Amino acid sequence: SDGSIRLHQMTSEYPLMQWNDSTNGQPVIALQWALTRPAVFFVLDASSNIYIWDLLENDLLPVAKQPIPSENIVSMAVLGDPEKPNGLLGIVLAKESGQIDIQYVKKKWALP
């Protein structure tokens, strides 16, 4: 609820990493790992901002932030096929109105 993100290992109750205030204090609505690149994950906050984290590029801050100003985003899912090396990776966004929006991710964050 405060924008903190914690990375846990299944064998320990203590986080391996913790990023406080990662969304400028906005609650985290959804967090999804990329299906095609294990070090990348996406965060959706309550202000409809999407943050892209690539832990191989920067493990302190997100590598990109994309605001979605047109309408409130209420849910997010990641699509892609980890078995295919084409690097096709997308984010499905569910809007408050019920509309679905699919946005594709740049290859540099999608390629294995």
Automatic annotation (TrEMBL):
GO terms for cellular component: cilium; cytoplasmic dynein complex. InterPro entries: DYNC2I1, WD40_repeat_dom_sf. This is WDR60 protein. The gene is Wdr60. It comes from the Eukaryota. GO terms for biological process: intraciliary transport. GO terms for molecular function: dynein heavy chain binding; dynein light chain binding.
